[in-house]
Amino acid sequence: MSELVIETSQLERSFGEVLAVRGVDLAVKAGEIYGFLGPNGAGKSTVVKMLITLLRPSGGAATVLGHDVVDGAASIRLRIGAALQDASLDEKQSGREILRMQGALYGLTKPETDARIDELSSLIEIDAIDRWIGTYSGGMRRRLDLAASLMHNPDLLFLDEPTTGLDPQSRAQVWEEVRALNTQLGTTIFLTTQYLEEADELADRVGIINDGVIVGEGTPETLKRAIGADVIQMRVDDNDAAVAALQTLAGVDKVERGPKALLVSVSDGAAAVSPVVIALDSAGVSVGELTLRTPTLDDVFLELTGGRIEVSQ
Predict the structure, then answer these.
(1) Which pLDDT score is estimated for 312?
(2) What is the reported pTM?
């Protein structure tokens, strides 16, 4: 599908004299997972709140599912789901009661609500649905909040840092659930995150925001390839012989002498390791240590912003 479900043009939001979002342009297609990546304070949550009609833009324009975020706010709210960073859940209610209330708010009948709860409790793996929320772990609360945002079967789901503060096992479970929503139900997902590996793992495309401005956008692979090649790092017994053997080898872009090792830049690291080792062996060079390093989204962020994301726990 190529229909745009989110489109913004020079979107801005100020708080007093502080311009928190400065001319953001976005185009999100139906059926994709779009990862919105950036550190705390970069403007991620502010952009989301404008798109889900909780904040009015100070400038520019934005449409969600074909409706303007100001003039068509009511129409947008009926067709989107949102699981925000801080879930407001009544600890004296059970998970089932929360979901039934959410169904009622969207006009579902009781049979429709119960059928939807059965579908979601299986998909989201809510195994304590009839217990009080006060007994839930952080991961269980996140899954319940996710289920609540899906009760009305939205066309577009906003997930604002859904795994912040979760342990690795709970984070992996949420990842699986996000993939299932996208692949099994076809739900378009706008995912904000400060976890680089989360964006790399889940997103079809990534937008990187820093200081209220989009500084990079593309598929994770395209962004990583744009900043450089794979690097084979090695320690050998004869640097001169190794350089001579490798600098004309097909697939090798550059050979550099690092302070402790040789750095061999290659276009395809996985394919190049074997020819590199064979060439060194043929030249009589003994390899003491060899590692392959590929670019990461952390490298991308460093290249585009000059800093690294400091992840809050």
Answers:
(1) 60
(2) 0.82
